[in-house]
What does this fold into?
Amino acid sequence: MKKYGSLKRCWAVFLLLAIALVLSGCAVEEVKEQQGLSAEANQVSGPQETTEQNGTADENGTDSEGQITAEETTTFEEQIANCKAKENIIERDSCIKSVSISEQRENGCLELNVLGKEECLSEIAIGKSDEDICTLIDPEKEKWNCLEEIAVSKKEYEICEEIGADENIMRKDECLIAVAVSAGDYDICKQVSVNVRENSFMRDQCYENFEIVDSNLDFCERYISQTKEADCIRNISSDSNSSSEQACFGLSDEELDECIYRTATENSIYLDCYLLKDDTNVQNCIDYIAENSPDINVCSVASRGLIQRECYKEVGIEDNNAEICEIIATSDERDDCFYNIAIDLNDSSLCKKIFETKFLKKDECFETIALEKKDVTVCEELYFEENYLNCYVEIAKLVEESNICSLMQLGHFRQYSIYTPESLCYKEYAIETNNTDVCIQINNTELKQECNDLNAVFH
It folds into this structure.
């Protein structure tokens, strides 16, 4: 019984120890959980405290003092680096192209290997309206397309000049035409070349994109092709209520042409000539008016050659307009034009425009003006020595002053005489004014003696 009682007490003690161990383990787990929660709380509270110290972060990842936080968007360079990390080259290039276009950064396009960098550069250039980016494109065709699109968008024809080179002249013309049409400005067509494509001048092709406004004859004169110019004028004539049509209304076709020709030439209305059905009669009608009633407009459509040159010459002289003389193609009529205007305006500068080998005509022009203005400085422009001497002598006589001879700038004659121009001037003046007192101003003894003999002839 005692043995059994002891055993029973041992089991009781064992049971109490087991319960104590279980309770101890639970306490340890609870402590660990509390420590874990405390650590997490510290991790959360740490950054918050930092943020509170530096300022509260806004929704864009920027604190109240403008500093970029860790939530900043990836930079362009980082995005490109991420694209480059892709193993598939197509995916790599596609990523780079997408990022470059999205960010409008042309330098990213230069990283492309397989996909077209030209398309990438062009899209960014057009998006930014920056023609300088177009110059980074290697294939010229793509570069020109890029430049043209920006030129059209900005309506700036000067951008087309970037195409430039002589071998690219047609492509540059296409660019200029596109800009002219886009801007609605036919003045830009003047920048287009006179090269021919498809049997038509490129410049004329530009003008054909515009309608004639308010019967603008000046517009028609812009055409290089005489045929297109005539068609342009004919369209204006047909739209207007011409006097010839009114005068000849109701006649038969044959009588109508005769009537229109007569009315147009009698009234010097060259536009009515275009109402004639026969092209030969049209030109004959115009030329008749150009010869008999010259006008700057009719001159421009007169037959090329003598008729047109004479027409311009007469109009230039009539209007005293030297710019019209410049239009004349050959020297004879052009020189006559300059000569007459120079004399009429007493403008010696126009004498210089006479063809350089026309020495006699130039001398006549200079001397006439010099005597009219009594201006010896104009005498200095004379080519022939005899004319030079005569110019000074005549002005000296006009002002009745022999000392004019002392103003001569030429120190000696090359061929005309062995004596100085000044001494010869005094001698001639003395003889022509019958005044031997002037002879004393001559330094050369022999020439002075000849001067005193009024009948002497020098050699």
About this structure: The two ends are 186 Å apart (CA to CA). The first helix runs from residue 2 to 54. Residues 384-459 form one domain.
